[in-house]
Amino acid sequence: MNLSRPDREPRLDALAAEYVLGTLPVRARLRLARIAQTDTAVAAAIRGWEQRLSPFAEAAPPVTPPPRVWRVVALRLGLEPVRPAAPGPWWTRVGVWRGFAVASLAAALVLGTALLAPPPEAPRQPIVVVLAGADARPALIATVARDSRTLTVKAVGGTPVPTDKSLELWLLPDGAAPRSLGAIPATGMGQLRLPAAADVALNGVPALAITLEQGGGSTAGAPQGPVLYTGRVERLY
Amino acid sequence: MAVAPSSERNARLAQLLSRVALGDQAAFGDLYGATSAHLYGAALRILRDAAAAEEILQEAYVNVWHHAGSYEAAKSQPLTWLTTIVRNRCLDQVRRRELATVPLTPEDDDAPRHELPSDAMTPAEMLQAGAEAASVRDCMEALDAGPKQAIALAFYRGLSHAELAAHLRAPLGTVKSWVRRALARMKNCLDRAGDARTE
């Protein structure tokens, strides 16, 4: 992608066209997007094509997204209208953990790449869950070997761990009530015991969540406090 | 280049965006109501995976809430700006897969992971509708079936050159030149129509 040659303009325009159409191969695509951040001619060429193709984009039939999409957006942004109207306990609302999980997925993928880099040793690949809050920054990371019952949780990035209250970790099984794994020690790092080996215990558990509970954890058998962090269970094998 | 019937809607969306930039939650709800089905349709068609499309949409609107202030009315229309955010995220995602996976075969394509609504138009029909909306139907009709189909599948379904070649059962080099020539043709049609309107 030499953009300094004399025929720069038509070449740039052709690249911008395929960028907006979507056919530009991934490396060229990412590179052009990066250049566009500082090069106004490149940015203008891309905008020109976005504008040109916009009638074609608008002609496509709309598809109404499921209501949970808005609920998750509103929840993540802490918008007011959704708070009082919440029907039932939060874990019954399907979308709750999902939105949070997106950002942590990105983090998990980065982490996953790092973990996948050495030659694969399938049984040793751990299950990794990156728990993130509404700001999408990884707050805690939980890892467990597939055949192990001991899950290690660690606060990262200076996540505050309260001393007068407890961070409690929950399994969020599909279609069932959350199941407590216990409180995370005030040191921000600890090992929690799963009810079975991770492969079994996390089967049908798409996500984990952390709530803020009274010191020592919820005594009610169900979350009492607010959800601070959630993360999707990623299997790196 | 603006299409007349949508200018009123765009003016309303621009107004909503400027209120969202000031933290107006009601405006944000209205903006979501007015644009989410459009954006979800675009994401679903490219990703063909409802869960992935929902996630992209959530990320996009969270970003819009935080960055509505970076929308520049002078540079792009609001719906184009929003669509671009979603399309780019979807395309980045599907293009990245090229690094790791083999292209879709026509057989895979017949069995999408997520069924689009049964009344959905075909990509070729969408392209046709777009050409009519932009008043360039006659000009676009001069395009041959192959290039037209390639553009429609690339734009609406996010297919790569290799996927287009497999889908259209044509050599890769042929498909690349179809796309290039069709884009040049579209530019010609659209810019001429734009000039005609502004005269």
Written description of the protein model:
By secondary structure, chain A is an alpha+beta fold. Helix content of chain A is 35%, strand content 24%. Chain A has 6 helices and 8 strands, in the order αααααββββββαββ. Chain A is elongated, with a radius of gyration of 23 Å. Chain A starts with 7 loop residues before the first helix and ends with a strand. Chain B has 199 residues and is mostly helical. Chain B has 2 domains: 1-101, Rna Polymerase Sigma Factor, Chain: A, CATH 1.10.1740.10; 106-199, Arc Repressor Mutant, subunit A (Orthogonal Bundle), CATH 1.10.10.10. The radius of gyration of chain B is 18 Å and the shape is globular. The chains are: A alpha+beta (237), B mainly alpha (199). Chains A and B meet through helix 1, helix 2, helix 3, helix 4 and helix 5 of A and helix 2, helix 3, helix 4, helix 6 and helix 8 of B.
How would you describe this structure in keywords?
heterodimer, A: 237 residues, alpha+beta, Immunoglobulin-like, 24% strand, elongated, B: 199 residues, mainly alpha, Rna Polymerase Sigma Factor, Chain: A, Arc Repressor Mutant, subunit A, 2 domains, 10 helices, 74% helix, globular
Q: Which homologous superfamily in CATH is the superfamily of the largest domain in chain B?
A: RNA polymerase sigma factor, region 2, helix turn helix motif
Annotated CATH architecture of the largest domain in chain A = Sandwich
CATH class category name of the largest domain in chain B: Mainly Alpha
Annotation field: number of helices of chain B: 10
Q: Main beta sheet of chain A: strand number and arrangement?
A: 8 strands, antiparallel
What low-confidence regions of chain A span 5 or more consecutive residues with pLDDT below 50?
Answer: 82-101, 108-123
Structural class of chain B: mainly alpha
CATH fold group of the largest domain in chain A = Immunoglobulin-like
Instruction: Write down the Rg of chain A.
Output: 23 Å
Quick one: how many beta strands of chain B? 0
Helix content of chain B: over 70%
How many distinct folded domains of chain B? Answer: 2
> Could you tell me the radius of gyration of chain B in angstroms?
18 Å
Beta-strand residue percentage of chain A: 15-25%
